[in-house]
Each structure stands twice: as structure tokens, then as C-alpha cells.
């Protein structure tokens, strides 16, 4: 006869630790109200970890006198996670799954040690514009400079409207990327952007112009950039400037197209000449025509 299945036993150490933590928290001397729920915590833990909570709990402050702190707009689940990091003896570790949740808490309540821990985790994760904006917002200097150097051009172009909302970030970003070969095609655009920032022009007011310039960055010339800077310094009608720009850009594209068509006609004339004299050459007429059709859209 087989012995009865053993009942799973809980770890007595874990059970004791859980009981001790629960008892410790139930004896808290401050009530924290979050999402309509009242949680008891120890003021010493909050005050030692956070200068912000220390100020709230200081003698004479309303929260300290009442022994109650209200956190409107905050999540109860996130606050409990926040406290699990602050609790004495906690073995809680920051992870990629929790870093984005906890960073705003540690930043807002100035918990510097855990904020530094968040930065360490973020520095092991891939660079994106979202990570750059996050580092800028929460003043994570090491992560910020890492992201500035590694942002790809396609991400800059796709997120330019967000960049334009942060002139200080652009001031830090431009000197770095101007030296990088991968941004070579945007060199003239960066010069225009630096001129706007240097002249104190509010980028949001010229965003349609900048977006148009970025789209046609390969056509920007020093003369056009100078004209744009002059237009934008004075009393500016955005639609007038855009109309003038479009006229210039279309004219440039037209010149490029005319040049391309001229070159194509010259090549086609040469192909015709070769075809007419192909009897005296080893290259067959069909080979010449096929090459002309593939590379120059030539149709005999």
C-alpha cells in the first residue's frame, strides 16, 4: 500500500517573515490614503527614504499633525510596490518589468538610491527615443548622454515633433550628431535648426516649416537656410513662408528633373548610335537595348 501523499509544507522562515512584516506594517504610525484605501506605514521609513515625505511629516505640517497623507491620482498597487523597496531588510530588486513603474515614484519623492538603481537597469536596455525622453524628463544624466549618442536618424525624423517640444534636449543633441557620419544627409537641416534656436525662435511656431525642411533635407542649401532664418526673425506669416519654400523646393526639383531628362536623352541618343553601328561591334543590338531599357527606361 502506497503511503498517503505528503501535504505540502510552507517554509517556516517565509511564514515568519511574512507575519513579522504584516505586524510591523499594522503598527505603523501614519495613515496613507491612496485610491480610497487607508494603509498604515511607519513615518520613520518614509522620512528616512524620502526628503519629500520627511517635509510632509515635519512638525507643523498638516499631514504630520493629522498623521495622515493623501496621495490623489496615485495607484494603490504602485504605492505598495514602492513601499516594498523602502522596507528595512527588503531583498526586493529592480527589474526591467518594474523600472518604468517605479522611476516616477523615486524621482517625485527624491529616493536617490533607488533612482540610481533604475538608471543602472535602463542603461542595460536598448536605446530608443522613448528612453532618451525618459532620461531627459527624470534627469538621468548617464543614460541621457548614452541615448544622445546612439539615437538612429530614422528615429529622430519620425519623432521630430517631440524633439521640437524640448529645445534644451536639441541643444545637447545637435553638437553630438553633427559629427556622426550617419547624420550627414541632415547636416543642412541641423544648421537651420541651430539658427532658429540661437535666434530664440519658438520651434512650435515654425513646426510646419521645419517638418517640410526635414522631409526635403537633401535639397536644403545655405542660401535657402539664410532666407528662412531672415523670414522667421521678423513678423512671420507661416503660410507665406511655406509657400515661398515650396516654390523654391519645386524649382530645385524641377531643375534636377530637367538635368536627369537631359542626361537620359543624351544616353538614349548614344544607344541609338551604337545600335546603328552594332554590326561593326561585338556587342549585340539586343544587349545594348536591354541595358538601356533597364537603366534608363529607354524604349526603342
TrEMBL record:
BTB domain spans which residues?
A: 28-95
Pfam families recorded for this chain?
A: BTB
The record ties this protein, via Gene3D superfamilies, to: Potassium Channel Kv1.1, Chain A (3.30.710.10)
* Superkingdom classification of source: Eukaryota
**The protein, known as:** BTB domain-containing protein
Name the source organism.
Polarella glacialis (Dinoflagellate)
